[in-house]
Every structure is written in C-alpha cells, then in structure tokens.
Amino acid sequence: CVTPVSGLIAIHRFVLLFTKERIKSILREKCLKATDGNIVDLWVLTRIDHWDHDQECTVCLTDQSLLLVSLNFITEKIRATQRIALNAIHTVRVGNLVSPDWSILPGRDYGGLQIVWGALKDTKWTDLWNPLSKDVPAATFHHHPCFYARESPVDKEMYDCNPVIYHLKEVLAPLAVQPVHENIVLNARFSFLNLFYNQSNLGFCKDRNGMSF
C-alpha cells in the first residue's frame, strides 16, 4: 500500500463539492469515447509530474483505457485528457518516493504509485527538461490532500491511491502485469518555482481567501 503523510490538514478544496457520481457524469458527457467502454471506477489524486510539481488529477479507469484528466472543479471544464490503453501499461510500481542523489529539493517522506506505459529510458531529454511536455510515458501519484482532511469527506476512498493499485492488479492480470514494490525515483530538479508551486498548492482548485483558482 502507499505510505501516507503523517498528520491531518485543513482543506478548502472545490473537489469536495463533487460526489463520485457527479464526476462520472461530467466525464461521460465531455471526455469518454465509445472505444473506452464503461467506467470501472475513478479517483481524484495528486499527480507528481516529471518536474516535481503536484497537480490535481482525475484518474478514470474504463474497460479499455486509463484516462488522466485535468478537470477544473470550479468551472467543470476539462483542461486536458491523457488516454492510455490498458494493454500499453507494462509497469505498476508501488514504493517510497525518492529523489536522485543530485537533487536538492526537499525529500518526500511518503510513498506513491507509478504507472509506466513506454520506455522511460528512451524519453528525449527535451521532454524531460520541458515542464509542459506530455510525452513522458509515466505518471506518478500520491493520495489527494482531501485524504488527510481533519473531517473525513464523503467518498473518502476517491482520494486514496490504494484502491487504484487493487483495480489495476485485477484488470492487468490477463496481461501478466502485476504491481512491483520498489522505490519510485522522481526526476526532480531544484528551482524556486517548484517550492512556490507546491507550497502554494497551485496545482489544485482551491478557495484562496475568497479567490478561487
């Protein structure tokens, strides 16, 4: 299972206004294709991108695909969708989130889930050094901040990484892909933007003292 952060936090997030069924309805209307099949389940998690930025991500598992959706919980608009065929996934990694030896970013003393659907070692350096690139064939996740709310939210399991591992284990079993337990090495770099971005929760739809973004 994914090792959690210690402690509870106060939450002012717009996703709390949404039930799982409401999110499913939005995705069916604006995102799903006939080739995806039916929705198996969905979660709202923290995605840690290849520049170590924490971002809110709606993870939707269907009969044929895994959809990684950037859904704005204020406007209900889909900002971006990444569609991965289930038969393209070759690695599901569960373990501690660790930084390379040369990184001077603060360490993450908790675990995560990584899904890989391509050859990471063959990823172009121009993609790895581009914070906006969508061509890195992997996604790393941790529990959503709402998982740590002082008052347990409705649909709390929607913010939990562990059910994702269970469902992926089930659907990928016929493809001989099963979770492996080992450290997840982040492609982390240091910049003041990283620290400001993550500490300010800019990757999440949040009420910021009366301002919503």
UniProtKB/TrEMBL annotation:
UniProt cross-references to Pfam families, sorted A to Z: hSac2
Domain HSac2: 10-158
Top-rank taxon: Eukaryota
An annotated GO cellular component: cytoplasm
Protein family (similarity comment): Belongs to the TPRG1 family.
Name of protein: Tumor protein p63-regulated protein
Lineage: Eukaryota, Metazoa, Spiralia, Lophotrochozoa, Platyhelminthes
